[in-house]
Amino acid sequence: MSQDQNKDHKLDGQPDPSRRKFLNTAAFAGLAGAGLSVGLSACKQEQAPAPAAPAAPAAAPVAHGSANATHLKPGELDTYYGFWSGGHTGDFRVLGLPSGREITRVPCFVPDALTGWGITNESKKIMGTKPDGSLRYTVADTHHTHASYKDGNYDGRYAWINDKINSRLARIRLDYFTCDKITELPNVQGFHGIFPDKRDPVDPAINYTTRVFCGSEFQIPLPNAGKDVNDPSKYRSMFTCVDAETMEVRWQVLIDGNCDLAATSYDGKLAATNQYNTEGGVLYPDMMSAERDACLFFNVARIEQAVKEGKFKTYGDSKVPVVDGTRESNKDPKTALTCTVSVPKNPHGVNASPDGKYFICAGKLSPTATVIELAKVLDWFEGNLESADKAIVAEVEIGLGPLHTAFDGRGNAYTTLFLDSQVVKWNVDAAIKFSAGDTAQKYVVDRLDVQYQPGHINASQSETAAADGKYLCVGCKFSKDRFLPVGPLHPENEQLIDISGEKMVLLADHPVRPEPHDFIIMKRELINPKQVYNIDDFPLAIKDPKDSGVFREGKKVTVKMYSMAPAFSLTEFKLKVGDEVTLILTNLDKVEDLTHGFAIPKYNVNFIVNPQETASVTFKVDKPGVFWCYCTHFCHALHLEMRSRMIVEA
Ligand SMILES: [Cu+2]
User: Fold this and answer.
1) How far is the CA of 566 from the centre of ligand 1 (A)?
2) Cα of 633 to ligand 1 centre, how many Å?
3) Which InterPro entries does the entry mention (predicted)?
4) Distance between CA 495 and CA 421 in Å, rounded?
5) Which of 3, 43, 417, 579 could, after both became Cys, cross-link 422 (CB 3.0–4.6 A)?
6) pLDDT of residue 359
């Protein structure tokens, strides 16, 4: 273990130097019940204000660290998209950066009152329903979002986001910014990290994302059907591969320990997850008993070959092939599907450096970052490295509670320090030289206080071959005094930092409803959204005005309508109590930004149709009377007059 060589960077109020060593089980167990008291007290020691951003001279071009950097004049557009997870709200947030303005939210896992997500038949089909047609789930916990790659950079096709509660993966089409598929992973609980592959592990012609890897944190009995519930030694977790196009689960790997975050190599050959509970503990102290946990690597090509050769099992009702990635079965490197590289105590976060050479794991309960050289991991799989831990090329102290790492493309890494309430900028090459014995290397370049207790971090284009080192965002878990008080529930604080110079400069705070977890930031020119739908993409579309009308087959009624500002095609439609109605609405307007809504009072119906979009709802007619259906989305000077009478006869 190396020593912290940056003594001048140490903060005041560190009475006990040993505190900067491992937080042992006892120390951390003392926190149980006290919540995050260590984190908060660490923060109190460090209330020194962040360095103020120097004011930019009037009318000068925006300089490094300028407060003006985040201010856009009216009508100016941001230069980056930020894709954020919505946390408990179960959606996908789209921000513009550097302004930090929230532009939209894409509903995925949880119903949304604006768009009618979870109300329309089309969205319910994607979300999944019970036999009675009601939604299977109405809660979610989104954590991680990542986007598809081509040639090592984002290609603007898809983004993915996970739901930890119900182990679901949603895909967002980045042409329309809509969720088009949701997959529930079998055999796992606590689905946490995701990462798309960056190219095919075998076929050099496939230089874009074809798979999404998913880690699962919670070990469970397999199959999880009521047996072995009192025998934690039988609890296991799996690493899952989902097909990026079909969104079907391709395969799973049974492993020792658990999965946390995920990362993929630029050559497509390796995926990895950091593991914080290699002990397989069920109780809190058990999960922290080992001094070292791991970064577990998956040899993707070998796993797929094993699946092809039928070397797999299935569990319970699931048909997904599960290969054996446990340590016991993978001792011979030349045939191993997995490779375990040890990492100090309960690591959190594994991130791929933009030069493609390293994965970096942060220690969480150890004040260290571990740098693993991927070429050496591949050497191990070839039988040319005497032990997997020889792939570790640096393990350096960077501060207390390191969690996640971002990159600037200039050889520097930026790691959040949860307990220190800081971001530390450190140089990867210097850290490697330091670990190799050159103790004159000053690998820590800068430290910046953040407000407060940072978790996720990401920089513009960070985990791409085009990392540009302009902006860094930090998701602070606590905001405390940074915003107007709004009662007991505090927003979180998303902070924007300028990293274009040697020193980091804090530019802006943004409140956000809890809790966003992870995010990515990409150049705006990589995304090409469409403004108007293609009417042919909707099988139910009412393309010809004369197809509008009420069509009855016994008690089943189909109401076909179209909208064209400022009118619906039917000024009224008649139904009878007891009917089962499917109402289909096509928006025939082709004008950009001309969206209509459709609400039915007392029937719990409201949804929108964007230009050239079709949506439908199905409901039982159970209340007689007159119901004024109206357009809920402002569309025209006569928007208030845009109505249709639903007349229900008893
Ligand atoms: Cu309207």
Assistant:
1) 6
2) 6
3) CcO_II-like_C, Cupredoxin, N2O_reductase_N, N2OR_C, NO_Rdtase, Nos_propeller, NOS_propeller_2, NosZ/Cyto_c_oxidase_sub2
4) 12
5) 417
6) 98
What's the gap in Å between 613 CA and the centre of ligand 1? 13
Sheet holding 91-97, edge to edge: 101-107, 91-97, 80-85, 519-523
d(CA 44, CA 594): 51
Structure tokens at 631: 């357009």
**What's the gap in Å between 631 CA and the centre of ligand 1?**
5
When the pLDDT of each residue in the chain is averaged and rounded to a whole number, the result is 90
Tell me the sheet residues that pair with 509. Answer: 495
- Top-confidence residue, 63 or 567: 567
Please give the structure tokens belonging to residue 36: 């995050």
pLDDT tens digits for 289-344? Answer: 788 888 999 999 999 999 999 999 999 999 999 999 999 999 999 999 999 999 99
Is residue 557 very low, low, confident or very high in pLDDT (cuts 50, 70, 90)?
A: very high
What's the 645 CA to ligand 1 centre distance in angstroms?
15
Q: What does the block give as tokens for 89?
A: 């709200």
Q: Taking a C-beta distance cutoff of 8 angstroms, is the pair 172, 151 a contact?
A: no
Q: Which range is least confidently modeled, 16-30, 450-464, 598-612, 619-633?
A: 16-30
State both tokens at 465.
Answer: 């071959």
Terminal CA-to-CA distance of the chain, rounded, Å? 80
Place of tokens 């927003």: 491
**Residue 455 tokens, joined:** 């978790």
Neighbours of 223 (CB within 10 A): 15
> How much distance in Å is there from the Cα of 172 to the middle of ligand 1?
26
Query: How many angstroms is it from 539 CA to the middle of ligand 1?
Result: 22
pTM for the model stands at 0.90
| Segment 476-489, tens digit of pLDDT | 999 999 999 999 99
In the reported structure, the alpha carbon of residue 126 is separated from the centroid of ligand 1 by a whole-number distance in angstroms of 26
Which among 308, 160, 186 is positioned nearest to 244, based on CA atoms? 160
Report how far residue 84's alpha carbon sits from residue 107's, in angstroms, rounded to the nearest whole number: 12
Phi-psi region of 643 (alpha: psi -120 to 50; beta: other; left: phi over 0): beta
Q: Which tokens sit at 493? A: 């604080």
pLDDT in tens, 93-107: 999 999 999 999 999
State in Å: Cα 640 to ligand 1 middle.
Answer: 8
State how far the Cα of 24 lies from the Cα of 290, in Å rounded to an integer. 10
360: CB partners within 8 A, 6+ apart:
349, 350, 351, 353, 369, 370, 371, 372, 405, 413, 415, 428
Which SS3 state, helix, strand or coil, does residue 572 take? strand
Distance 284 CA to ligand 1 centre (A): 55
**Of the candidates 3, 5, 4, the residue with the CA atom closest to the CA atom of residue 440:** 5
pLDDT tens-digit profile of 5-23? 443 333 333 334 344 454 4
Å from CA of 567 to ligand 1 middle: 7
Its sign, for the CA torsion 508, 513, 515, 516, is negative
Q: What is the DSSP letter of 229?
A: T
Mean pLDDT, residues 159-180: 98
How many other C-beta atoms lie within 10 A of the C-beta of residue 330?
Answer: 21
Q: Which residue has the tokens 């995926």?
A: 271
**Amino acid, res. 272:** A
Please report the DSSP string for 371-407 in residue order.
Answer: EEEHHHHHHHHTT-SS-GGGGEEEEEE--SSEEEEEE
Per DSSP, what are the bridge partners of residue 417? 402, 422
Token representation of residue 194: 């995701």
Q: How far is the CA of 584 from the centre of ligand 1 (A)?
A: 15
